[in-house]
Amino acid sequence: MRFRNFLTFILSISAGALAFTHSSALLWKEKRVDASPEIAVALPLFVQVLMSGGDRFLAANLGSVRTLIVESAKMRPEEYRILAKLQLDVSWLNPAHEDNYYTASAILPWNGEIDAAQTVLYRAALARPFDLQPPFYYAFNLVYFKNDPIAASEWLRRRAIRLPNAEERQLLENFAARWLDRANDLKLAVAVVESMAKQARRKDFREYLNLRARRLRDLISLREAANAFLKKNGHSAKSLGQLVSEGFIPTIPTDPLGAGFKLGSDGTPIFGGVRVDEHGNSY
Q: pTM higher than 0.90, yes or no?
């Protein structure tokens, strides 16, 4: 039995050495990238596992250490691609690796590797159903890099129900509702928020969601009025008050959450950062 185990060990080492030699020969033919020495080589996954004695979790730890010691602030685009490859490898070897998903979300999206970051976060979210951070970062990237708040909201709602902590579930649901303010299809956003309100267990949260739905409906009304003004006059209104004075809306709605409404740079009504009175004057 001992001889058999020893023979298996020798064969594993030999296979790893052969795989490394073969991979090195293949890599030698590829165009070399003058990258940081810590990340200069991204070996095939099976080689990483063999070189770790068949332990994929050890291989993931070793790969994660390589990514952590890199000075990412001074990297070039081609180096970020290598870093993304390394972090994708780690997420395959051990999708629940916390350091890997955390650093991937902090570095990759901001340096042109959004798809790699999303893959790492997606795998982490599935492997860590108790952790709110991977689904949150994944949804954040959908909103700010993919401009898809509807998909972000749906993703957060699906992941929220799996969280064991009630407060964390509600936190994700809150973001799922808030980010719908950025949706291009506001009518769909209203339908989603109203559906969330009907399913909400807590009365205060249900009332809060109904307020968010109401302000979205008010924004839809303002945009319809602004479009009517544009068609009639051939130019956008200069203020929300002008929509009132020319009879397109009776009054400027009051935002129940206090942010108010204003005209964007293109004349489209949006949520504002200031309060306005019924005449469109800020205060």
A: no
